[in-house]
Amino acid sequence: MENFRKVRSEEAPAGGGAEGGPGAGPFADLAPGAVHMRVKEGSKIRNLLAFATASMAQPATRAIVFSGCGRATTKTVTCAEILKRRLAGLHQVTRLRYRSVREVWQSLPPGPTPGQEPGEPAASLSVLKNVPSLAILLSKDALDPYQPGYQPPNSHPAPSSQPTAPTSKRSLGEPAAGEGSAKRSQPEPSATEEDQTA
């Protein structure tokens, strides 16, 4: 593959209908007002969360879905966890599956591939890959707790955003304020030896 470069990557059509249409995807019974956030490898978490937080602040929006595949799965989890901390009381359902992705590779310009005439267009390859995909549903309304992948709302309160008491910078070995400056006195080794010989 060192003589080829990737031209494009596209989702292969699924047998049961393309994802993204109404009733498609891992959550077929979603309300019509649910927001679907497609997380990609190059997506900025700050931008995704700004839009998701603004959408969930509206009373009409009752649910949001974060979905990503391949290298974007970790970013998908990060977005969902941060939103759960910002908005308390969200029910979660996580679904894992695989997506088929078709990659198209084209041969590099210098020299034709073996068996190719000089005037012919560059040879191309088509590779079909199965990549892991993750979809996380966060809902304001209660969900079925017996379905696989369900997580109830966090019972612990979110960490407060108020600043803690200021701490002073100190060098190593110095006691902090309020710790006291008394040190345990230890006899020097030479004094101990003199006491023992006397």
Give the topology:
Blueprint (H helix, E strand, L loop, with lengths): L3 E8 L23 E4 L6 H13 L5 E7 L3 H14 L4 E17 L16 E16 L10 E2 L37 H9 L1
Parallel strand pairs: 2-3
Antiparallel strand pairs: 1-4, 3-5, 4-5, 4-6
Helix pairs in contact: 1-2
How would you describe what is shown here?
The radius of gyration is 30 Å and the shape is elongated. The relative contact order is 0.17. It is 18% helix and 27% strand. Helix 1 links the parallel strand 2 and strand 3. By secondary structure, it is of the alpha+beta class. The chain has a domain of 108 residues: Alba-like domain (Translation Initiation Factor IF3). It has 3 helices and 6 strands, in the order ββαβαβββα. Strands 1, 2, 3, 4, 5 and 6 form a 6-stranded mixed beta sheet that branches. It is found in: Nucleus, Nucleolus. Keywords: Nucleus, Phosphoprotein, RNA-binding, rRNA processing, tRNA processing. Its main location: nucleus. Component of ribonuclease P, a ribonucleoprotein complex that generates mature tRNA molecules by cleaving their 5'-ends. Also a component of the MRP ribonuclease complex, which cleaves pre-rRNA sequences. Pfam families: Alba (PF01918).
